[in-house]
Every structure is written in structure tokens, then in C-alpha cells.
Specification:
This protein is α/β, with parallel strands linked by helices and 327 residues long. It has twelve helices and twelve strands.
């Protein structure tokens, strides 16, 4: 999938610091930057590199500075940013819906205090290239929304407003992206990971039931990574928030595509429709980036599913993935 996207590598003159580097989007972002020989500083709570290891050769990954620490620890964040002096920050560290519901205090610390720490570090170090992740879940707090309200969505909406204040008061620029349902190698947790799990099940020859129906986002992890990278490839000029959704496809069509690729796949769906928007527009984000640097690219759903299944098959053959990933 990395070969489907190009990034403006000539626009980078210093390292890119990625928080949440061990997550799915973090791993894809790191892989895309390293492919173009752009220096990366990886930050995460632990030294668990299982997702980056699915995308990046161990020899190359071992050369990346990996800084362990809690994003809600202000001293850790300020000291790390001061030490490594990044040109750009891509802030992805977060706790998702089920984890926020299980521990609301931890969710608030990671998702809200963590974002304040990043903005404060950017302010203190005069960093002009910051991108951070909100979520489609924030839409539930917009006027006239009938989407399900969650603590995760509340925290992410708060983050959006925090970044606006940092621009208003301190001229700290940022681009905030609201990814919808991200698909691809490394997407293995969260309530919207099940489309990717179905692709893995098809590659393994195992049955799997996607626990929701209806039209949902089909967004490639590589596409999201490219969008985040493009968003920090120039000096910012405001605090902006954009949806990034990909294609809206019915789960029945998803299953059909999987079965076209793997005719013996035993994939089904059940349950109700997802309580989140079934279609949003990427056009405002594309227009914003085209005016400043370039479009971040796209990949259609069928290609994304095909490439993901192929990648899973290679990983299965190499022994890096097995049936335990379905649990």
C-alpha cells in the first residue's frame, strides 16, 4: 500500500516526532516517512513494536529513536520535544472508545491532557508544523447530530477546541484530522477494527462475523498516514479541523469484495448499523492541502481490501501473524 502514495519529501528539513507510534496509524506514518528517508522520532507508552514490525524491516526500525513515556506526563513531553527538536509533530497517542468507557480518568488524561502537553511543547519550542488526531466520534457533539455520544468523542471534541485556543492565544498552528473507520495491516483494536479483522480471517481461511451492518467508512491506513504527513509538510497558518472518511460502502459489498478475492472466505455480518456518520466529505481537506502543498492521494475500497489481504498472506507465510490475531 505504501507504493500507492507519494509524500512531499523535499519539504522536510528536520525530524518528525510521532506520538502513538506503536499504533496502527502511527506505524503506517512511520513506514511512509522512513521509505522516503525522513528522520523519525517515535514516542509511545511502551516499547511494543508489534505493529511497526509488520510494516518496517527490523534493521530499519532499530535505527529509529524510540522514546517510552506517558503522553499525559507533562515533563516527559516537554523534555522529549526539547531534546529531539523536531521540525514537525504528528500527535496520534490516544485511548479509544472502549478504553475510555472502562477508565474515564485515564481516557481524559491521555486524550485531553496529552494534547495540551503537545500544544504547550510546540509553543515553547516554536514548532509550526503540528497535526493531531480527532475522530469521527467527535461528530456526535456537533449540532443536530444523531450519532452516539461517547467519552472518547467528548475528549476529541475538546482537543479540537484546545487547538483553536492555542492558535488564538499563542499562534500555534495545527491541522486536526477526524479519521473515520481505518482499515489495514495493524488495525487490530477498537470497535471499528472489524472490517480489517474480516480481511485477516479471509487470508487465514477462518470464518468471521462482522458485528455490524449498513454503510460505513472504508478508509485506508496508508491514506490517513499520507494525509497526516502532508499536513505537517509546510508551516501552518491557523487551526483547522477536517474529516477524512474514504469511501462509504455497505458491509454486504465489503463481504462480496472479500469473497471475490478469496472465494472460499466465510465472512458474514450481523447486528445493527454503526452509530456514527455513514458518509462524510474529504473534499475540504483535499482542497486545503492542495492550496498549500499537494493532494495526499487516495485508494479505492476494492484495491485497499485486495492489497490488505495480500499483505496479510505474506505476513502469515512469514510467521509474523497467525490465528491468535483474530482473538
Amino acid at each position: 500500500m505504501l507504493n500507492f502514495f507519494s509524500i512531499p519529501n523535499q519539504s522536510f528539513n528536520g525530524p518528525v516526532l510521532i506520538t502513538g507510534a506503536g499504533g496502527c496509524i502511527g506505524a503506517w506514518t512511520m513506514a511512509m516517512l522512513l521509505k522516503e528517508n525522513i528522520e523519525v522520532i517515535a514516542c509511545d507508552l511502551t516499547n511494543n513494536k508489534k505493529r511497526p514490525e509488520l510494516l518496517i524491516e527490523n534493521e530499519e526500525l532499530s535505527k529509529v529513536p524510540w522514546v517510552e513515556g506517558d503522553i499525559s506526563d507533562t515533563d516527559y513531553v516537554l523534555n522529549t520535544v526539547k531534546k529531539y527538536n523536531p521540525e514537525s509533530i504528528i500527535h496520534l497517542a490516544a485511548l479509544q472508545v472502549p478504553f475510555c468507557a472502562a477508565d474515564p480518568t485515564a481516557g481524559a488524561k491521555v486524550n485531553v491532557v496529552g494534547t495540551v502537553n503537545i500544544m504547550e511543547a510546540a509553543k515553547q519550542n516554536s514548532i509550526k508544523r503540528i497535526a493531531h488526531a480527532s475522530s469521527m466520534a467527535a461528530h456526535s457533539f456537533l449540532p443536530n447530530s444523531d450519532s452516539l455520544k461517547t467519552l472518547y468523542g467528548a475528549y476529541k471534541m475538546c482537543d479540537e477546541q484546545i487547538s483553536e485556543v492555542y492558535w488564538q492565544d499563542h499562534k500555534v498552528p495545527s491541522v486536526c484530522l477526524r479519521p473515520a473507520i481505518v482499515n489495514g495491516v495493524g488495525r487490530d483494536q477498537g470497535m471499528t477494527s472489524k472490517q480489517t479483522v474480516a480481511m485477516l480471517a479471509a487470508a487465514l481461511g477462518e470464518p468471521y462475523d462482522i458485528p455490524y451492518k449498513g454503510n460505513v467508512s472504508h478508509l485506508s491506513a496508508a491514506e490517513v498516514a499520507s494525509a497526516f504527513i502532508h499536513s505537517v509538510s509546510y508551516d501552518g497558518d491557523g487551526a483547522f479541523v477536517f474529516d477524512i472518511f474514504g469511501e462509504s460502502v455497505n458491509i454486504n459489498e465489503t463481504i462480496k469484495i472479500i469473497q471475490e478475492i478469496k472465494p472460499n472466505a466465510q465472512i458474514t455480518s450481523s447486528g445493527s448499523e454503526m452509530p456514527f456518520p455513514s458518509i462524510l466529505s474529504d473534499i475540504p481537506l483535499r482542497d486545503h492541502l492542495k492550496e498549500r502543498i499537494s493532494d495526499y492521494g487516495c485508494v479505492d475500497t476494492k484495491t485497499m481490501i485486495n492489497e490488505t489481504i495480500k499483505a496479510f498472506e505474506v505476513l502469515i507465510q512469514s510467521g509474523k501473524i497467525d490465528k491468535n490475531y483474530l482473538k
